[in-house]
């Protein structure tokens, strides 16, 4: 699925999923192999490959939902 990464006014990383009309804050970031796993406030875990460190925002990336 395609998601948009952006930062809010407080500087927190946010994820917007257009198909679900869902916008959540990222509460945890971990690195697994070559992918970043982003844990959202609602409990979703998204795996995203090819992200720079630090993450440049705003950007649209392809993500895979893990749970």
Short structural summary:
The chain is an all-beta fold. The chain contains no helices and 6 strands. It comes from Adonisia turfae CCMR0081.
Keywords:
6 strands; OB fold (Dihydrolipoamide Acetyltransferase, E2P); mainly beta; 67 residues; 0% helix; 60% strand
Count of all domains: 1
**Helix/strand/pairing class, anyone?**
mainly beta
Distance between the termini: 13 Å
Number of strand segments: 6
Strand residue percentage:
over 45%
Chain-averaged pLDDT: 93
- Stated plainly, the CATH topology is called OB fold (Dihydrolipoamide Acetyltransferase, E2P)
Query: Uncertain spans, ≥5 residues at pLDDT below 50?
Result: none
The biggest beta sheet reads: 6 strands, antiparallel, barrel
The CATH class: Mainly Beta
Which second-level CATH architecture applies? Answer: Beta Barrel
The radius of gyration computed from the alpha-carbon positions, rounded to a whole number of angstroms, is 11 Å
What topology, given as strand order, has the largest sheet?
Answer: 1-2-3-4-5-6
H/I helix tally:
0
Q: Judging from the principal axes of the Cα atoms, what is the shape?
A: globular
Range of helix content: under 10%
**What's the name of the CATH homologous superfamily?**
NifT/FixU-like
């Amino acid at each position: 699925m395609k998601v948009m990464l952006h930062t809010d006014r407080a500087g927190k990383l946010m994820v917007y999923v257009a198909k679900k009309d869902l916008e959540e804050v990222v509460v945890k970031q971990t690195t697994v192999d070559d992918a970043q796993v982003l844990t959202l406030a609602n409990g979703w875990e998204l795996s995203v490959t090819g992200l720079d460190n630090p993450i440049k925002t705003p950007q649209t990336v392809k993500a895979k939902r893990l749970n």
